[in-house]
Structure formats: C-alpha cells, structure tokens
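Every protein is a chain of amino acids, and every chain bends into a shape of its own. The protein below has been through that process, and both of its lines are reproduced in full.
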Amino acid sequence: MSIIHIEVTDQQKAALEAAAREEGTTPQALASRVLGDFLEEAQPIDWKAALARGEGLWADRDDLPDFEQLRREWDRNLWDRE
C-alpha cells in the first residue's frame, strides 16, 4: 500500500474527523474507503458488454405493441400531407 499526502481545508479536515468518529474508524481509513468507492464508480462503462447482456431481453414478451405497424405509421411522405 502506498501513502499519499493531500491538502484539505480546515472545514474538510474537521468534517472528515467527525465522520470517522461517527463510523468508528480513523480519518485515514475513511478517506481511503471513500477514495476507493469513488475510483470504482469512475471506471468507464463497457457499453458493448452491457448491450450484449440485454440481448433478447424482450424476445418472449407478448405485451408489446406491433413495432412494425408503429414504424409504418411513422413513415409518411411529408409532401403528401392533407
């Protein structure tokens, strides 16, 4: 494990110490956990894998509208409007 030094305001230090006391841990441990959570959330999303996981999601549904009919209704010639 590595050690890094960061600068915080007096208010941030006081808030970190108070939160750590409330959690029953040290400010260093709390800051490390919060940083870890942030970095985990900041990981880029693999959108291709997420899309692949959704493949076939609606395959066996019978409560969906007829999408082909809806699409045909949207396909209209704008020049032939009444």
User: Anything to note?
Assistant: Residues 10-80 form one domain. The two ends are 73 Å apart (CA to CA).
